[in-house]
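Postdoc handover notes: sequence design on the structure in folder B. Input tokens:
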């Protein structure tokens, strides 16, 4: 189920706390957005996120909200998946550099290309700059796992996207 935490670990002013029932008492707890299960050993196994919240360059973003915004304004897109891709800085050392990538699938009858500029135009007045995809890459279909969720490990890497420049437009951050 969904993982909640409570007790002295909750920061003062945390706005996402909720009153939940624990046995015969109510406690103030923070909904983490993670799914977890108790194992027979008593350990807690984290299963992953229950929402599409992710961290990008220090900002928390909900990729589902951005995907829905794009789909509503660009009907030529039949499917979309936003994800954070990472690569090392220029010398291959140091920290990962994060990029927001949009993987799109167009309806069969669509002949025009949709690139980052088209998405930038519709999003620039709607969301902060860091929620606008750095890369847009067209796929034949979004890869799915056996349980029907997006298989993020099967999406092209940043290097694969860069090698297929015909499908990508990179714009500087605004």
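Designed sequence:
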């Amino acid at each position: 189920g969904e993982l909640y935490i409570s007790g002295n670990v909750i920061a003062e002013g945390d706005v996402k706390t909720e009153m939940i029932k624990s046995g015969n008492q109510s406690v103030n707890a923070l909904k983490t957005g993670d799914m977890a299960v108790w194992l027979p050993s008593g350990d807690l196994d984290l299963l992953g996120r229950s929402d599409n919240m992710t961290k990008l360059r220090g900002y928390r973003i909900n990729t589902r909200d951005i995907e829905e915004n794009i789909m509503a304004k660009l009907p030529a897109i039949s499917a979309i998946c936003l994800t954070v891709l990472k690569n090392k800085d220029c010398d291959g050392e140091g920290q990962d550099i994060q990029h927001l990538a949009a993987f799109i699938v167009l309806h069969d009858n669509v002949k025009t290309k949709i690139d980052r500029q088209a998405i930038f135009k519709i999003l620039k007045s709607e969301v902060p700059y860091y929620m606008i995809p750095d890369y847009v890459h067209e796929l034949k279909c979004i890869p799915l796992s056996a349980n029907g969720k997006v298989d993020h490990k099967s999406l092209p890497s940043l290097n694969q996207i860069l090698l297929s420049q015909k499908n990508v437009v990179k714009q500087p951050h605004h």
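Context for whoever picks this up: The chain has three helices and nine strands. Don't rerun without checking with the PI first.
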